[in-house]
Design a protein that fits this description.
single chain; 309 residues; alpha/beta; Rossmann fold; 2 domains; 5-stranded mixed beta sheet; 5 helices; 11 strands; 24% helix; globular; disordered C terminus
């Protein structure tokens, strides 16, 4: 087997990737999470122009899985997640296109009887030779959103960004490097997505023994990400994980760094009630929430609003 020098570089992973460093094992118990994957594979030339685009829902009838699909599926299974792989689908022509939106992906997810969808693109491109040795290389980068099927707005619960670079020191051709890039990037992507799905598994709207923060009227993924980033800045908060989603509502759990979970949640509750975000405001509802949780309505700035009782 040819010896190769593989240099890997991970891009910034948004949302929950920092909490998913635990390596999965082949012995992980597989859980049916009803997750469908809609990945568009894009191969670019060295000058950045597109050479080839592939996606499994390109034709009605039997799906044609891409090489990226196969690697990601294998990694998801090792992480304990069994993706939905329909044998035959009847997808309308309007949806048989690459790079579909999160809203359209949610509709297609319902068609294949999934509860959540992973939708995004994986790009591959040839890199300029690395000086001074002139090693050829290929870069793979992926950007994928996790979207609940029941949310007609296609609001992203989580976003994953992975970047890998593969180089050869022995003159391997581009096809071999592309295969290596697919393998390392696809496995990394499947690992972080699989860990996130296993941690957030649960039926929509299920009860919880820990206090949850319910965010209503959440229509933009950027707003959810802004809230998460603000809470992760707190020393008392280790992570923020989505627990369930219904139309217009996302419930998240506050993972404390240390100490009493309810005490940390109460602190976060007080902070959100008085914090100002750029472009929107959180208004605390007066409704009682099971488990000691809290409910917030998200509204654009400069509007008068009375939370629903």
């Amino acid at each position: 087997m040819e010896s190769r020098k593989i240099a890997e570089r991970t891009g910034a992973a948004l949302a929950l990737c920092a909490a998913m460093l635990m390596a999965p094992t082949a012995a992980a118990q597989t859980v049916d999470t009803d997750v469908a994957v809609f990945l568009t594979e894009v191969v670019e030339k060295a000058d950045g122009t597109t050479e080839k685009i592939s996606f499994w829902w390109s034709d009605a009838g039997e799906p044609t899985w891409t090489a990226s699909d196969e690697v990601v599926f294998a990694a998801l299974r090792e992480a304990g997640v069994e993706p939905v792989q329909p044998q035959v689908v009847d997808i309308s022509r309007i949806h048989r296109r690459p790079g579909i939106s999160t809203e359209n992906a949610a509709q297609l997810g319902a068609l294949v009887q999934a509860e959540r969808v992973l939708v995004g693109e994986v790009y591959y491109r040839v890199l300029d030779p690395v000086a001074p040795l002139g090693y050829p290389g290929v870069e793979a980068r992926a950007e994928v959103d996790l979207v609940p099927v029941r949310d007609a707005q296609g609001v992203s619960l989580d976003r994953f960004t992975v970047r890998r670079q593969v180089f050869s020191s022995n003159g391997a051709d581009a096809s071999d490097l592309f295969e290596d890039a697919r393998e390392v990037a696809g496995r990394a992507l499947g690992d972080v997505m699989g860990q996130s799905l296993r941690r957030s598994i649960g039926e929509v709207g299920t009860s919880s023994e820990v206090p949850l923060l319910s965010l209503r009227n959440l229509e933009r993924a950027e707003n959810l990400e802004m809230i998460r980033e603000r809470l992760r800045e707190l020393d008392e908060v280790d992570d923020v994980i989505e627990r369930w989603a219904a139309e217009g509502t996302i419930a998240v759990e506050i993972i404390p760094s240390d100490g009493d979970p309810q005490g940390v949640f109460d602190y976060v509750d007080r902070l959100l009630a008085n914090h100002e975000f750029d472009g929107f405001q959180l208004i605390r509802g007066d409704s009682s929430v099971a488990g000691g949780g809290a409910e917030y309505w998200l509204e654009p700035e400069h509007t008068e609003f009375n939370p629903r009782r």
